[in-house]
Amino acid sequence: MKKLFGRFAAMLFALALASPLAAAESKITIAVGGGACLCYLPTVLAKQLGEFDKAGVNVDLVDLKGGSDALKAVLGGSADVVSGYFDHCVNLAARKQELQAFVVYDRYPGLVLVVSPAHTKEINSIKDLAGKKVGVSAPGSSTDFFLKYVLKKNGLDPTSAAVIGVGLGATAVAAMEQGQIDAAVMLDPSVTVLQGAHADLKILADTRTQKDTLAMFGGEYPGGALYSTAAWVASHEKEAQALTNAILSTLAWIHSHSAEDIMAKMPEEMVGKDKALYLAALKNTIPMYSETGRMDPKGADAVLAVFSEGSPEVASAHVDVAKTFTNKFVDQARKTTGMGAK
User: Fold this and answer.
1) Rounded Cα gap, residues 121 and 118, in angstroms
2) Comparing C-alpha atoms, which of 67, 50, 66, 70 is closest to residue 58?
3) What SS3 class is residue 9?
4) What is the pTM of this model?
5) Phi, psi angle pair for 8, to nearest 5°
6) Distances in Å between the alpha carbon of 133 and those of 22, 34, 45, 130, 143?
7) Cα angle value 133/139/143 (rounded, 5°)
8) pLDDT at 227 exceeding the cut of 60
9) Residue 307 has what pLDDT?
10) How many CB atoms lie within 10 A of CB 268?
11) Which residues, in sequence order, are CB contacts of 83 under 8 Å at separation 6+?
């Protein structure tokens, strides 16, 4: 009897080891720069679909207010990887801090500069933002970088507007509707939510489509990616590969399913009460998601060019942008599984 029980216990143990959950031996903390934002959906969806577990990593997602907060979490050691905008890698390279993106999930940044409904009559152009209060997710985040770039591009001092941190989700929408700020750099679904309530919503700059992105930056401009310190990536290649595989599988799932299917997999608290508006925003956003996971070197160069124009520090730093990303994990996934082959 004891021998039989021993064999049964051994069999159960073997089955447990073979299960996806048991395979998830590596514990990785990913700091997300605002999980409710559709720009970060691939990371959240990968968790919802169990793709991280299938790839052999036990991922804990930590939702933070903005990209700068997620970056601080990694630099401070409380998180391993950032799910955030690639431009931080370029900006930090100018300060001799080596960060490296290893899988890209957003082809476009999706940033939108919107006028508060309460200030529609007084703000008709970007030049009218001088001296005004403009909301960003958090000071130092990609929304802040974008604002400064747009101001500079329109002949204004990048610091001519007062920057106010308002987050990316419901807090940003509330700040806009209550007139606490004059304008804001927002992302979907928040922009679509505002448009649903205010048909005359005024948009001053938009990068949600390829056409608008090309008009704004002169080329494709990568948005969301998984990145970490170059030292972490070099010393955790197995984990970086697993995370890359999970994101690529998720991107393939996104592009082979309907917006309704995707919404059904997302956490209810992120979808919100108005499912119709969320669905509309999601349908607008799906083309923004990468089909390959690869960083386009020209896109990385465009990020450097934008920062060089808006920041004398970056312009004079002679940043080697090739060191701020790697495609080797995506290429390896393509060789071994065929993922990201488009």
Assistant:
1) 8
2) 50
3) helix
4) 0.83
5) -65, -45
6) 50, 21, 34, 9, 14
7) 80
8) yes
9) 81
10) 8
11) 30, 31, 32, 33, 40, 43, 61, 70, 224, 225, 226
